Amino acid sequence: MSPQEERDALVPPLALHDRALRLLREDPDGAPARRGFTLSEKSSGTSRTDETRLQRKELAAAVRDALNPLPGDSAAVHRRLDRLGVRKRGVYMIQSAVTALPLPEEQREAARALARELIRTGTTVPAVTVGLYLLIRLGEPEDIAPVSALALFRELAGPAVQTLERLDRPRAAVLWLVHRARYEELGPLVAALWSGDQETVRRELVAFPAVYRFLDTRLTRRIAEAAHLAELLARYPADSALSARAARLLVRMGCSNDDPTQLLFYRDAITVYESVVERAGALPPTLAHHATLLSLAFDLSSGVGVLLDWAPGRREALLASLGRLLAEPRWVAVVDAAGSEADRRLRAGWIRRTGRQPFERPEVPARLRIEVVAGDPVDREPVETRVLVDGRPLVPALFSRGPARIPDVLLDEGELRAGPEPREVMLAEADCTEGCCGALHVTIRRDGDEVVWEGWRRPPYASVTRDAPAPPAYRFDAAAYDAELARAEADGSWSWPARTVARLIKAGLRERPEILGRWDARRGWIGGDVEEPDTTVVTFWYAPGLATADSLRDAFQFRWVLPDDGRPPEAQAAAALRRLAEEDPKTYAKVSCGSPERAKELGFPWPGSD
């Protein structure tokens, strides 16, 4: 042991709580570092390697043994965890061990005292983590300050923020943002939220760039909570910029392309909706504001906003108010004057096509309604097939990992049709993929004069609330079901020209597979380009002999891009189908994926190989 190591061994380690306070004092602004502070390996409890020899089950047992019975003081917790080799990996076992601890009423005060001693005097991450998880069960307002200090360490942020969720949600949101707001553009806002000064928060909340790529649903909810958004709106009732920003945050919080159920976790959602809609008439009539208010209307008519705990008739009243406002000449005029700039043109076209859709409700509410909703194209919002039962959207109520599937599948390919045999249908898929985070499936069958949806299947962690009961079976009058499905299949009012061209080409190739079969090709994905909505994309697979092959083995994909040329979609689709039938598409489409070696072998250049 070196002289320095000997000296270090004689100096008692500083409590992690005190280290956090010291780091804050050393900062000239008294603010945490971006993404928080990092502990050394010694403080993290990772200096020894005993733990690496423990298997997961052994590690879980070691954590349980260290905490049951609960030690009487902080030093004993440190000794037990150290003796059993609970280091960095063991931290992930502490939550389940502490959650399972029996804490009879007569022991709760002693356990609370131990937790407070651990968070104030603990010197290792595992020991302090025990205190934090105890406070999730036992914490009180006086614990907010020390837990907030510990939350500044990356190694403790998870359990500390969970503890604060119970005690002070806005504070929990601020500290979550300290660690998770990774874009530099959000830095001034996070600093303002840390300061707690409402005027500064208001200024930065309005100023930061609220573009879609910065704002996933979880981050948006945390910003609204950290900013005390409902209180800000009440404090600044005449601030139209703040009202517009609040509307924008609601839209992003309910974004179906991510996890729209974050809106349901936002406790002030109804209050903010009411404030925004009541003040919407004071907003300057701009194209961006029109798009934001229309997006809010879609959420209130058929999106996740329907699932909030509204007073009877209140949601419908807000929706009607938005409908009247957006029909006023001054709001209609901004759409007509949009101009030719790409994003403005796309957004104006979307408003013209769908601007009255959320306000047109059937006079007699039906048991089942199927509504295709195309979101704001500038925000790259998806097109989804929303299924409403008794006025409530099914997918966000049952599945939190992604939007309802596109109409190209559920409607154009007849997936929702009820036949004589039961059939399982995927209604929604996680935005990553089903293989990663699952999907929502239902079995559809016809039972006499009824259509039945039953046999729901989804991952247990994909529901809106933990331990949610299995969805019930839904029964629909078969005649009404068939009529509603036929109406939805025939309704193309939501679609823009390039998307309509894609649907018509796809339908033509589905009806006449020989068009591509002639060229040893098979239909691939056909749709509108997400980044270039004015273009149609046709993909197909090719390999010699593929027309009669049983699989796509050794095939590779071609991609043909068709810009919208201004003709009616029917004419563009007919021309594309004629060309596919008469000219080998491999001569004008480009290779897009598959095996580079196989493509080269057959004489097709690989992208970027020139």
Short description:
The chain is an alpha+beta fold. It has 30 helices and eleven strands.
How would you describe the overall organization of this protein?
- There is one protein chain.
- By secondary structure, this protein is an alpha+beta fold.
- Helices cover 49% and strands 12% of the residues.
- The relative contact order is 0.05.
- The model is unreliable at 46-52 (pLDDT under 50).
What topology does this entry show?
Blueprint: H1 3-10, H2 16-26, H3 41-44, H4 56-67, H5 74-83, H6 91-100, H7 105-121, H8 125-138, H9 144-150, H10 157-167, H11 169-180, H12 187-195, H13 198-207, H14 217-226, H15 229-235, H16 240-253, H17 262-265, H18 269-279, H19 287-302, H20 314-326, H21 329-336, H22 342-354, E1 368-374, E2 383-389, E3 392-393, H23 394-398, H24 407-410, E4 423-429, H25 434-437, E5 439-447, E6 450-457, E7 474-477, H26 478-490, H27 497-511, H28 514-517, E8 521-528, E9 535-542, E10 556-563, H29 569-582, E11 590-593, H30 596-601
Antiparallel strand pairs: 1-2, 2-3, 4-5, 5-6, 6-7, 8-9, 9-10, 10-11
Helix pairs in contact: 2-9, 4-6, 6-8, 7-8, 8-10, 9-10, 10-11, 11-12, 11-14, 12-13, 14-16, 15-18, 16-18, 16-19, 19-20, 19-22, 27-29
